[in-house]
Amino acid sequence: MSQPGPYELPDSAVKALNPLSQRLIMNRRGTTLWEVRTPDKFFAVKIGYPTEAHQWTALAPAREISILRELTPEPHFSGTWERGTWGAQPWRFGNSLYDRWEHHRAGPEYPEPNLRDVAQCTAALAELHRKRWVHGDIQPAHLIMGSERTFLIDLALAQGGPVPDDVDFAYRGCLVHYEAPEIARSVLQTGFAIPTRESDVYALGASLMISATGKRHVEYPDDADRRDQRRAVADGPRRRVEIPGLLGSLTTAMMARLPRDRPTTDDVSRELARVL
After folding, report:
1. Cα distance between residue 177 and residue 175, in whole Å
2. Along the 276 residues of the chain, how does pLDDT read in single tens digits?
3. Does the global pTM surpass 0.90?
4. Under a CB-based contact definition with an 8 Å cutoff, are residues 65 and 59 in contact?
5. Backbone angles phi, psi at 100, to 5 degrees
6. At CA 43, angle to CA 38 and CA 47, rounded to 5?
7. Runs of H (alpha helix) within the chain
8. Residue 40, C-beta contacts closer than 8 angstroms, at least 6 positions apart
């Protein structure tokens, strides 16, 4: 089946934003993403639509905006269109964690990742947890490292506060490469899961590992079926963390199999502060 889209900005989005220009960034997994320049600033505009496998992707942009309105006073816009919902939020300038650490994956002659980067990523997640939300979809692409701070983006799957019924949907896991074992196991058994602070910490550890080494936390073929991937995460052996020093020990602890054995984001921050 061919990929639908990309979709242009709905009329209601054009009316709300008065765009001067727009640039297509992505069209996949039920979302068309545009970088939109307005008279005042830049926005990330997501246009959601259903896919053959998932209907919830049509609601995701508006669900995310409802959460962002709980968390930040910045300007946000959302609306509906014929195939789903759209949402606009301030554009975050910077590089993803994976892109920022690209040179660390090139060979052993390159220096270890900067622990200040790890501290910034951890601080971004800790701030969300202090607000009593869990992200539910931590991955390197969602950690945007700017010149002054790190932004944690893509909160469409976040849990922790009220969400309007007309844009809400159940949590069915996230990108398997970063799922904690208990999340993968629950999705396999019931089709659903409940993300927690502990599963967020695991996902952050998995994100640090793949960004530093290029290796996933669990080994399976790239073309493995999604259920086979989750079986490997839920019950298979985890790869050994081949990162030296404090980053290696922290990443290992964050990916402990049992949630109760993982450090909190505050624990990780304290360990990093001790050496920075």
Report:
1. 6
2. 467 879 999 999 999 999 999 999 999 989 999 999 999 999 999 999 998 888 999 999 999 999 999 999 999 999 999 999 999 999 999 999 999 999 888 776 666 789 999 999 999 999 999 999 999 999 999 999 998 899 999 999 999 999 999 999 999 999 999 999 999 999 999 999 999 999 999 999 999 999 999 999 999 988 899 999 999 999 989 999 988 899 999 999 999 999 999 999 999 999 999 999
3. yes
4. no
5. -65, -35
6. 115
7. 11-17, 60-71, 97-100, 115-130, 181-190, 197-213, 226-235, 245-254, 265-275
8. none
Q: What values do phi and psi take at 259, rounded to 5?
A: -55, -40
Query: Do residues 236 and 249 make contact, with C-beta atoms less than 8 angstroms apart?
Result: no
The encoded tokens of residue 142 equal 């969602």
Asked whether the beta carbons of 153 and 97 are under 8 A apart, the reply is: no
Per the document, the length of the chain is 276
Q: What are the tokens at 52?
A: 């053959």
In the chain, count H helices and then E strands.
Answer: 9, 8
Picking from 208, 206, 253, the residue whose alpha carbon sits closest to that of residue 232 is 206
